[in-house]
Amino acid sequence: MNFLTVLSAPISLLVAILIASLHLLHPALNFLPWKNLQPSSIQLKADLIIINGVIFTSDESLPFAPSMAVANGRVLRIGNNSFVQEVAGHGTQVLDLEGKVVLPGFIDSHVHFIAGGLQMMQVGLRGVNKKEEVIRRIKAAAESAKPGSWILGGGWNNDQWGGDLPAAYWIDDITPNNPVWLSRMDGHMGWANSVTLRLAGITNSTESPKGGTIVRSADGEPTGLLVDSAMTLVVSRIPERTIDDRREALQKASNLALTNGVTTVVDMGRYFPGVSAELPWEDFTDVYQWTDAMSKMKVRVCLFFPMETWPRLADLVNKMGRALSQWVYFGGVKAFSDGSLGSNSALFYEPYEDEPDNYGLQLAELDTLLNMTLESDLSGLQIAIHAIGDKANDLILDLHSSVASTNGIRDRRFRIEHAQHLAPGSPQRFGKEGVIASVQPDHLLDDADFVPKKLGKDRAERETYLFKSLLDSNALVALGSDWPVADMNPLSGINSAMKRKPPNWKDAWIPSECISLEEAIKGYTISAARASFIDNALGSLSIGKLADFVILSTDSWKDFAETASASIEATYVSGVKAYPRNSP
Question: What is the average pLDDT score of the chain?
Fold first, then answer.
């Protein structure tokens, strides 16, 4: 492997000084915490030096290097061993990597961070592939619950136990004294017992709300399943989790993130169809702001808020800038255009194979969504809109075109979250129009077996998870997990994006859409950073940027590129080891 070794001290000083002065030259960069980049700090000695590694930087100007120096939490130098060791001083820690691979800290581009942390404290059903085990776990929770208290949880996926949708009668006998609410893995469907239905006043005469469905049996009785906006009939009855619970959830989520090499997350909040738009704001003030003030943040977060609350975020950004600190960044606003494939509520041009009269749900009136988007965009906020079905994606691409035409050209970095099923020609529109595709590779592991049943084999293979087509169209593709819908594990996501091989499959699913190792890593690093306007501080191991990085178990880049297999050996945030905590 050829490492670039031509960097000299004078050049590195000029680069660092130039970076340090950017915030003076460009007002848009003022929100970033640049205090450690002033020219007076250039002569700092390193706090940490790592040598003899294979460091993939995600920086095109120096893709690989064997050594890196960190000072005051930022990259001080990067290059060959002798060049970097020039900044060693008394007290500098030197770590010999012995050939191990190092990557920038992973950025998960789409999570529901506190919701996931709370789910870790509830009945966990993710990955359960037997109906009997689902019922056993709910029964165990009921046996330890006080009468009248809610039994909450989620993560179930009916496709994993054969496809049968759950119903209230499955659990009524074991939960006679407790209301139960269990969200499907995608967050677009919930399962209630009969106690909950009575509490919510849901009967055979209750009409489904706009943008949602009360699932009914053949005789018109509610089955216990609610889809999208219908979920508010139950969710509005559930007591709010305490501040202490939500703060604990943040810590649990952060520890899990660090274990998997995630140093930054883009948090889309506890905001789903049918859920109060106030929840992300309560989490910001009660949890993130408090935790940051107490210096207890472990992972960096970029926060998105419900689009209907855009004036509040615009006012906050005007008063505080784009970042609260090096830990808390303000991203933008999010809205929904459709539901999910698993709940048969993603919006398509053609009907579902298993429901010939169902084309999915359009969750927002287009005129209302367009007006909110125009106003949010005009205020300078970044826009992210959920779209899964092919028709939903085209509607949002059209909406972006209208916004760009009306409000004018600017660096808006408009995002479509999921971009899961794309009609012919749509990937090219992402690249041509500069729309970001925020996608989740591990979803294909869950979807591969059942998508053809819902869409038909030809349609499924023509338009599902078109990562390579998007990249070939010069679209910016940011990778994430949608945790807790899927595991927050970028190394698994990298493997899925490269191999596209679901469990028990011999061959790749749509092999033409496999991407390379470097493309996948960039999707979790520099591309993810650019997709959230945080690439001036994060996303690559470049001079002046925050020194977030991970050390992998592998010592062969060639093997890593071929197998896409490795584990996290250590995670560093601002040059300090954050995982594992009990080792030097």
Answer: 91
